[in-house]
Specification:
The protein has about 200 residues and is of the alpha+beta class. It has two helices and 13 strands, in the order H-H-E-E-E-E-E-E-E-E-E-E-E-E-E. It starts with 17 loop residues before the first helix and ends with a strand.
Amino acid sequence: MSGNFYPTPPPRSPWASPLVIGAVVAGVLVLALAVLLGFLFIPADKKSSASDNSSTTPPPTTTQQVSTKTETVTATTPPTTTPPTISTPRATPTVPGTDWQGFVSGPRCNAAGDPAVMIGQTARSNVVVCQVGTQVGRYYYKGLADGQSTELQFPTRSGDQFVAVNVDTTYEMTPAALTISTNGSVVAAEPMIYYWTN
C-alpha cells in the first residue's frame, strides 16, 4: 500500500469557535456595563438607606435666625407631647381657718388631690370628711377633739348628713350637731358652730 496515512483529527468543540468566544465576551461586557450604570443612577437617598438601615428619624433640630440690626432671634423647636393640665375648680369652705382640704391646723385631707366634702366645728371638735381624689362617693372621716385624732374609712352620706362607724362607735354629723354614740347610746351631742358641705 502506498501513500501517507493520516489519522482522522478529533471533532472540534463548538465552544472553541472564535464566534462563540466573541459572543460570550460581549455578553459579559454588556452585563458589567449594565451593573455599573445601575449603580450610577441609584438616587443618593436610596444609597444611604441601603447602606445604613439603622437610622430611622433624624434628631429634632433647632434653627435660629439672628438679625444684626434689630437683634431679632427666631427659634423653631419641635412640638412637645406634654398632656394639657386640667384645672378643676376648688370649693371655698365658709368655716373659719379652713381651705379646700380641711382645717389649716388640722384635721385635713391626706393626699394632695383629696378635697373636703364636709367641714364641721363644735366647741370641742373639728371634723372633716374627705373624698378620695376624683372618686365620687368614696370618703374618709377625720376628727380632732381634746388633742386626740380619729380617722375612719368609708363614711356614708345622705344629703348634708354623714355617718362614720368605728366598731361599736358611731359619729353622725349634721348641720345641727356632731352626735357620738356607743352601742346605740349617745355619749356626746355637740352642737355645730360651723358646718359646710359642698
